[in-house]
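Quick one, tokens below. Sequence please?
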């Protein structure tokens, strides 16, 4: 198994707000600029400095994660096969297509090999560009081939440096979003510093480089920044059109680079829907955002050869339903409180029913079942009945798809991020409830006018969107740990915006009867600066220690296996095994696979379940017949799976297979009453005894401490 071991080394006023404010032309020291020319120059200087700081922080973050990656693996010193093995599971599969395009005789031949691929799934020809989101690998490989950099930069470095460079884009986008929300680049500085110091919970790019989310999240952050700017009032028509174009491009790139884009944008669409229903966002701009989401996804659908999973996505069904329902209910935002609440309930029910009907209709027409495992997983996860479904249980038993661990909050609190986030979230949530009630009731009583104005100023449209966005993605992160990176990065933006917001501190001080303009300005700048100083003094030494810690990649068993495969098997050989290992086999050796980790295909899921019978209690004849049906030449057995201890009883892979097959699980503990003992011992254990009933089908050809490779007999 792969391990990391200690390396052995030989000897003022910032960006102008669209909304009018009491504190115009105010320097960070609280002085009022009386000279309009001086105020304009100060704005230009502030924007210039803020922009330089944003770019600098983005580049520093990129260098930081690249250095961590190098220090952790000694990437520059290890062999090519070790570098490729370091791209674990699906990361290796995605990178293999980049390598395939680089090694192709021509770009046209490389593209043809992806469109008519017969090495990723044996006895099947599949279209990789239709099935997987690998256009980024295609683009990078073409760029590498046409640029005159081959003599200076290896393909693997061009690839990983691009991903680390996208981290710079990510941090800059977070910085700009916070700046736009608060009106001061000090907020962006704080957001970026929080992102870096909470790296464990905000990104995992340094050890999962080719993962789809590492490509997609920077574009998602750019899209959120563009939406934040779009939701400002008093934009000029040209500004609005350019911003809509930026939103579209970012949405398209986000959708193109991650297969789970539709679920993330569905949550975003729900945020827009909620705010539109509560009259907290301009309806025209929300409509444009719905259309952009649909058009961006449809364009990706075309590029992915009309991928049915995209056409059958809930996002398209939901957005179309909202637009239809809005056409039917034209007077949704008129009337008193009870009248509007009634209309709102009917509107929500209408949208929900239309969404389910349209989605069901599309899936029926397309015979779409690619995403059914996700809904089975969600149904079981949220307690709507236990399941014996192998695919659903495979997700349920993975820690990444479990609830967010509580120690996450202690880590976030150590940087003061969670405390600041909680304070801002509570304040703006209360303000949002009051504003929503006022919008629905339409009450403008004179005695409440001044009080309501306080909350209205605090909750501008961009702040309202940021609030609902962070709440919905927070719920997603709490329910599924793997999705925390969508929440924690925005948490940095939201908390820093609140600490640097004039409106937030103005409201707080007025509630405490301590408000003055000068005091608001003082707190607005002093609290973030004190927080930055605290972060710097507490975490800078730790970051320096982290950067000085040197380790190296160490996985001799896997290296030995890959070298043996390349040296002792034909190029056309077909390998069966765990989907995680086989991704590495394809990348390192180029051999044909029976299954792989990209799980968004029903036939592949069925195939994987069948291949995994090598770890179940099945007869050698049954296993041989299954493997033969997929054209298998060699099967790789892993002791780490056969004798797994990482998961508890009931979640080990062999347990999931036993339950799915109706067999009693191994070990002490309860079993469901209808499970029965198997007639056969566990295949992966029994085959090692070299009994005649096994040797007539399988011959061991390779063995080390971790892996056992068996060659299948022909024509039995």
């Amino acid at each position: 198994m792969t391990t990391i071991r200690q390396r052995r080394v030989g000897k003022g006023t910032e960006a102008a707000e669209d909304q009018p404010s009491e504190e115009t032309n105010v320097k960070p020291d609280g002085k009022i600029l009386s000279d309009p020319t001086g105020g304009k120059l100060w704005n230009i200087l502030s924007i210039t400095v803020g922009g330089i700081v944003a770019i600098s922080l983005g580049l520093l973050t990129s260098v930081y994660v690249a250095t961590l990656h190098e220090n952790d693996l000694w990437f520059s010193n290890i062999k090519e096969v070790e570098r490729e093995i370091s791209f674990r599971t699906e990361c290796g599969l995605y990178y293999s297509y980049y390598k395939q395009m680089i090694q192709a005789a021509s770009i046209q031949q490389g593209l043809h090999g992806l469109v008519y691929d017969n090495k990723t799934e044996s006895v099947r020809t599949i279209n990789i560009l239709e099935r997987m989101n690998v256009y980024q690998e295609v683009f990078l490989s073409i760029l590498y081939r046409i640029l005159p950099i081959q003599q200076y930069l290896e393909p693997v470095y061009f690839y990983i440096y691009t991903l680390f460079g996208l981290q710079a884009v990510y941090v800059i986008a977070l910085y700009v979003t916070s700046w736009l929300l608060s009106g001061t680049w000090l907020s962006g500085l704080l957001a970026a510093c929080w992102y870096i110091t909470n790296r464990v919970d905000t990104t995992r790019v340094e050890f999962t480089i080719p993962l789809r989310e590492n490509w997609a999240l920077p574009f998602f952050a750019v899209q959120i920044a563009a939406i934040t700017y779009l939701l400002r009032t008093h934009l000029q028509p040209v500004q609005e059109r350019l911003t809509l174009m930026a939103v579209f491009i970012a949405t398209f790139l986000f959708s193109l680079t991650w297969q789970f884009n539709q679920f993330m944008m569905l949550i975003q669409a729900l945020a827009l829907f909620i705010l539109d229903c509560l009259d907290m966002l301009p309806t025209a701009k929300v409509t444009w955002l719905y259309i952009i989401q649909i058009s961006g996804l449809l364009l990706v659908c075309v590029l992915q050869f009309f991928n049915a999973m995209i056409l059958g996505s809930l996002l398209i069904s939901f957005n179309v339903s909202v637009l239809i329902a809005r056409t039917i209910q034209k007077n949704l935002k008129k009337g008193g409180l009870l009248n509007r609440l009634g209309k709102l309930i009917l509107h929500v029910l209408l949208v929900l029913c239309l969404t389910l009907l349209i989605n069901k209709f599309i899936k029926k027409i397309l015979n779409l079942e690619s995403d059914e495992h996700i809904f089975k997983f969600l149904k079981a996860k949220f307690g709507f009945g236990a399941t014996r479904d192998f695919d659903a249980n495979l997700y349920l038993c993975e820690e990444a798809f479990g609830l967010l661990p509580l120690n996450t909050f202690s880590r976030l609190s150590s940087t003061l991020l969670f405390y600041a986030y909680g304070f801002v979230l509570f304040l703006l949530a209360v303000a949002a409830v009051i504003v929503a009630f006022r919008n629905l009731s339409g009450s403008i009583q004179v005695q409440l006018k001044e009080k309501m104005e306080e909350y209205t100023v605090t909750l501008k449209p961009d702040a309202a969107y940021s609030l609902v966005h962070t709440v919905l993605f927070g719920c997603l992160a709490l329910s599924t740990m793997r999705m925390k990176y969508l929440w924690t990065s925005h948490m940095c933006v939201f908390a820093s915006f609140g600490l640097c917001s004039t409106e937030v501190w103005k409201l707080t001080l007025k509630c405490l009867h301590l408000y003055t303009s000068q005091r608001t300005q003082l707190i607005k700048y002093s609290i973030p600066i004190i927080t930055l100083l605290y972060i710097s003094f507490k975490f800078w030494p730790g970051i320096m220690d982290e950067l000085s810690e040197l380790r190296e990649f160490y996985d001799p068993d896997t290296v030995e296996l890959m070298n043996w495969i390349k040296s002792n098997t034909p190029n056309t050989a077909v390998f069966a095994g765990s989907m995680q290992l086989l991704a590495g086999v394809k990348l390192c050796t180029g051999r044909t696979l029976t299954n792989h980790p990209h799980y968004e295909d029903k036939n592949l899921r069925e195939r994987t379940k069948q291949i995994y019978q090598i770890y179940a209690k099945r007869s050698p004849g049954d296993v041989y017949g299954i493997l033969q049906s997929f054209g298998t030449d060699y099967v790789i057995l892993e002791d780490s799976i056969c004798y797994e201890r990482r998961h508890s009883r009931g979640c080990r892979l062999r347990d999931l297979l036993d339950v799915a097959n109706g067999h009693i699980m191994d070990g002490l503990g309860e079993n469901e009453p209808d499970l029965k003992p198997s007639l056969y011992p566990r295949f992966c254990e029994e085959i090692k005894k070299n009994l005649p009933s096994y040797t007539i089908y399988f011959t061991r050809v390779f063995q080390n401490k971790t892996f056992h490779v068996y060659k299948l007999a022909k024509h039995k």
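DSSP finds 33 helices and seven strands in the chain. The first strand starts at residue 3 and ends at 6.
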